[in-house]
Amino acid sequence: MRREYLSSDYLEKWADLNNVQRDGVNVHNTDDDKGHGIFADRSYPSSSAKPIVIVPPHLVLSLETLWIYAKSNRRLEGIFEAVGDYSRTARGAILIFLLLQITQDASAGSDRVTVSNPWTEYVRFVPPEGHLPTLWDEDARAAAVGTSLEAALSSKLRSLEREFAHLRNSTASIAWCQSCWWNSGEEGLCFRNWKEVDSIYRSRALDLPGTGHAMVPYIDMANHASGDDTVALYETDADGNAVLVIREGKILKMDDEVTITYGDDKGACEMLFSYGFIADSMTSARELFLNLDVPDDDPLKLAKNSIARSPPGLKLFESGGSVDWDSDFVWLVCINKEDGLDFRLLQTVDGERELKMFWKDEEISRESNLQNLLKEEQLWDVFHLRAIVTLQSRVEEQLLALQKDKASISSVYELAKDEYPYCQTMKLRQLEEKLMLQAYEDFENKVPDLNQLLGPSAILMLT
């Protein structure tokens, strides 16, 4: 499905028509490759508390407003009902709504699918976020091999494929969907379109106070800056308007860019995954997530994977000059039946059979509870050392994968037509390698201490 775009030069007219109030700011292109941005066209004193942008509530896309809107739009309501629970999430409802506006924009004459609204035109100011990894080509995605982005991107693409298949299967029997989306050849809806609306949502959605996840036109043109460089905050005022206000103590000069924060605590991988860039100010990966697998020779592997409620992996993160870790799943990986772990199929009150986890005949509801019970055991130091060795081995495995293809990826980067994904991925590789090397060293320092504490006779119990 082809799309047409409007220049940001017309955005101010759109804002005037839709009662988006601005006080001394406007949107235009940035000098770098960030696209659009909000800029001051006059100076503001540090004492200014008046909102610089006010967006009326009816323009804010949220789960609540979209379901209200669907009551007067039978085609939107029909899709919401067809896809079921998916439309009862903010993300699902917004993606479907955006898709309908893009379809409206791509249609003509009697084929128009819905009533035009302010967002029908606004989406024409919003090109797909091509810098997001889900829209990269295969060569660019290959540069992520060995980083934590590789697994996250693979999982996200599988999830998007499932969502798109669900949308198609759920709406195939709706006549206008069949005509406009599924039987229109190259003019119809394709997986690329679904990835595009997902990229628009992920890169622009805000956690709006009092509303939750939402999209706010005009304010979503603001770019990211972290820490003290963040100029403005988005809030909800007493009348339900979404407002942009200058941070206390900030002085804004003419032509300064008005920035917001997308999250100062986000790691490098999350920034690249969700927004398509790693801020220039980031000198550390901050955190990363690595998957963990139960060994194939573990007789309890199937039961462990079935019972697990926590993410199957470990999180590494910076903490006070060193690297710390968090993982509930690792205890399932390194604790066995011989230690006291067991699984049983029990019959529920309604006659169904349910898998339950036990530690020495005590039922456990979550993996985090298992760790608490292990701490009370005489062999806690043994269990703890097993976990450390397991995590250190996993970090070493990831480091080897990251370093293995470094030369070949560098050569591909030199020949790349679009350097941007490679520049960002190479930065991610450097930051994550630094974090994992520190984590490996920290694990290495813990192992001798635990070995000394345990003594030689206990080391045999590690396996």
Description:
The protein has 463 residues and is an alpha+beta fold. The protein is built from 17 helices and 15 strands. The strands form 5 sheets. A 4-stranded antiparallel sheet has the order 1-4-8-7, with no helix packed on it. Strands 2-3-9 form a 3-stranded antiparallel sheet, with no helix packed on it. Strands 10-11-12 form a 3-stranded antiparallel sheet. α2 packs across α4, α7 packs parallel to α10 and α14 packs antiparallel against α16. The longest helix has 36 residues. The model has no long low-confidence stretch (mean pLDDT 89).
Helices and strands, with pairings:
Blueprint: H1 11-17, E1 21-22, E2 25-29, E3 36-40, E4 53-55, H2 63-70, H3 74-83, H4 90-106, H5 118-122, H6 138-142, H7 148-171, H8 175-182, H9 191-204, E5 206-208, E6 212-214, E7 232-236, E8 242-246, E9 257-258, H10 268-275, E10 287-291, H11 301-307, E11 313-319, E12 322-326, H12 329-334, E13 341-347, E14 353-359, E15 362-364, H13 367-375, H14 380-404, H15 406-415, H16 419-454, H17 456-459
Antiparallel strand pairs: 1-4, 2-3, 3-9, 4-8, 5-6, 7-8, 10-11, 11-12, 13-14, 14-15
Which descriptors apply to this entry?
463 residues, alpha+beta, four-stranded antiparallel beta sheet, three-stranded antiparallel beta sheet, globular
